[in-house]
Amino acid sequence: TYDEDLFDEDIVAYAQAGQIVAAKSYVLFHVCTDDTCYLDAEDDLYLVDLPTYLTNVATYHANMRTDYCEQCNEFEDYCNPEEEEEEEAEEEDEEEEEVDEEEGEDEDEEEDKDE
Predict the structure, then answer these.
(1) Measured between alpha carbons, how far is 25 from 53 in angstroms, rounded to an integer?
(2) Nearest of 64, 27, 71 to residue 46 by alpha carbon
């Protein structure tokens, strides 16, 4: 809510001089609904107590992080194609090593037969 008395010059002067002490801390903030936000506009100006503001901001950022992490996990192959290519290369190397080991065992068996 917007309260014109809050910005009264006398009240501002008293607060600056330390003659008025707030019993409760408040936050004055703008809510921007799109990319353009005018800080001089009064229609999107809100005032809430500090605990309410901090609770909501903390919840918002926690949700944003959770959503970000969920998206990273869901689209990991798209976001990190290099890792997928490295994993495929490692799998191919392991398959080649297994084939080489099997061929080595076959040669050992043939030598044993010849003796």
Answers:
(1) 10
(2) 27
Cβ contacts of 99 within 8 Å, gap of 6 or more: none
Tens of pLDDT, residue by residue, the chain (115 residues): 455 666 677 877 888 888 877 778 888 887 777 777 766 666 777 889 899 999 999 999 999 888 888 888 887 777 776 766 777 778 888 887 777 776 666 555 555 555 5
DSSP 4: G
Residues 6+ apart with CB under 8 A from 49: 24, 25, 26, 27
**Tokens of residue 100, six digits:** 């080489």
- The C-alpha atoms of residue 99 and residue 67 are separated, in whole angstroms, by 44
Closest CA to 37 of 26, 48, 45: 45
Concatenated DSSP letters for 54-106? HHHHHHHHHHHHHHHHHHHHHTHHHH-HHHHHHHHHHHHHHHHHHHHHHHHHH
How much is the pTM?
0.44
